[in-house]
Amino acid sequence: MMPSPPTPPAAAAPYVELRSAERVPDTHAWPAGPDDHHPSVEAVGRDAVPVVDVGDPGAARAVARAAEEWGAFLLVGHGVPARVTAGVEEQVARLFALPALEKARAGRRPGEASGYGYPPALHLPKRMWSEGYTFPAAAVRAEFRRVWPDGGDEYLRFCDVMEEHHREMRALGGRLLDVFFGALGLTADQIAAGETERKIRETLMATMHLNLYPRCPEPERAMGLAAHTDSGFFTFITQSPVPGLQLLRRGPDRWVTVPAPPGALVVVLGDLFQLLTNGRFRSALHRAVVNRERDRISVPYFLGPPADLAVAPLASAVPPGRKAAFRAVTWPEYMGVREKALRMDASALAMLQVEDEGEDGGVPPKN
Ligand SMILES: C=C1C[C@]23C[C@@]1(O)CC[C@H]2[C@@]12CCC[C@@](C)(C(=O)O1)[C@H]2[C@@H]3C(=O)O
Ligand SMILES: O=C(O)CCC(=O)C(=O)O
Ligand SMILES: [Fe+2]
Q1: Calpha distance 293→64 (Å, rounded)
Q2: Is ligand 1 within 6 A of the CB of residue 209?
Q3: Does ligand 1 come within 6 angstroms of the Cβ of 119?
Q4: Homologous superfamily of 39-308 in CATH?
Q5: Rounded to whole angstroms, how far apart are CA atoms 94 and 73?
């Protein structure tokens, strides 16, 4: 009798071989496709996605406007070498090009925070047209031994590139955080002296999630990554020069396709940042669509608090004489609230809101 092939862990096999599909199978066909309720529009005129040059003296003002109106912006002038970004894209493409059984060695099992597999916080009726891999940015070497158990050149090259990316993004994260504090109206002295601000900057935790969106024979029936808000503070998205990320703009609701100019990073604000800023800066509802011609890679770098740090609205963000609009919560607690909210079709941030008898003081929109 032939020996049976090794069985991949259950969570490791959510994908059909998307690259060779000639049609979108029923498992991946979204009933009304990505243009379900709202049209997709180009980022022009009043839908032009804000661009912020982080080195510009007016960066704090530009960030404040973008964070209030969009919850997202394109970041330029950040100084991350193009060589690093190109290396990341190359390595991610190589990782996803490995045979399915090799990727399955690193399959994320239920309850695990890292590994190859479906995005952990999205529970959807249909499958998405993408492959993903999540890991803590500080643990690249341990994590990727699962893919390359014997180490070797491929493994070492992958780790070197990811670690360099992590160093660059972590430093940029601290720098942008100070710009955000400036955007809230804090002076450089107040930022330097602020205990809470310092704690947040020093403890920022980074998680990386690698996305591959293979080209799709019927993009109008498929979804790359379903609409969601990120849960942490803010996310840097490195993307291939192939558009696919969309942001929801309200009134009338429409999906704005974010351009992908070479060298620009996308910054997306998360729910805990909305909470930290007492609702002044908002998280952005976003998703990724796919296309017929080209594979697309995106590498979100999620920054948020360590698991044991309770996040509450910053004193500097609460108007004088008003109460904080939200109760304090840790990131894992927030994930639990969001899970519950998703099941109830409610807003997790609204569930954390504290009653205030005064007039509107930072009430979050239901994303
Ligand atoms: C740090 C994280 C953010 C994330 C959950 C995670 O622990 C790791 C994966 C992230 C991701 C990527 C795809 C969309 C998303 C909603 C998901 O299901 O997994 C985000 C999560 C998030 O921002 O909450
Ligand atoms: O692919 C993209 O550009 C977006 C990815 C994203 O939103 C995510 O992984 O959370
Ligand atoms: Fe996201």
Answers
A1: 37
A2: yes
A3: yes
A4: B-lactam Antibiotic, Isopenicillin N Synthase; Chain (2.60.120.330)
A5: 29
Q: Is the CB of 229 under 6 A from ligand 1?
A: no
pTM above the 0.80 mark? yes
- Cα of 110 vs centre of ligand 1, distance in Å, is 15
Mean pLDDT of 89-117: 93
Separation of alpha carbons 327 and 329, rounded Å: 7
Give the residue whose CA is nearest to atom 6 of ligand 2.
Answer: 300
Instruction: Quickly state the pLDDT bin for 172 (edges 50, 70, 90).
Output: very high
Any idea where the domains of the chain sit in the sequence? 39-308
Residue-level pLDDT at 15: 56
pLDDT at site 240: 92
Go through the chain and tell me how many residues it has. 367
- Calpha distance 117→344 (Å, rounded): 25
**Residue ID of nearest Cα to ligand 1 atom 24:** 231
**Pocket test residue of 213, 228, 334 for ligand 1, highest count of atoms within 8 A of CB:** 228
pLDDT (0 to 100) of residue 116 = 95
Ranges of H-type helices in the chain = 59-69, 82-96, 100-104, 140-144, 153-183, 188-193, 195-203, 271-276, 331-344, 348-351
Cβ of 211 closer than 6 Å to ligand 2, yes or no, is: yes
Whether residue 40 contacts residue 254, with contact meaning beta carbons closer than 8 Å, is answered with yes
Please work out whether the CB of residue 354 comes within 6 Å of at least one atom of ligand 1: no
Look-up of token digits 């293979």: 214
CA–CA separation, 320 vs 323, rounded Å?
8
Does ligand 1 come within 6 angstroms of the Cβ of 274? no
Cβ of 207 less than 6 Å from ligand 1: yes
Q: In which residue are the tokens 């704090």 written?
A: 60
Region 54-74: mean pLDDT is 97
Mean pLDDT value across residues 101-105: 93
Which ligand has its closest atom nearest to the C-alpha of 245? 2
Q: Give the β-pairing of 40-41 and 254-257.
A: parallel
Q: What is the ipTM of this complex?
A: 0.99
How, if at all, do strands 245-249 and 286-288 pair?
A: antiparallel
Q: Give pLDDT, residue 33.
A: 72
pLDDT at 77 over 50: yes
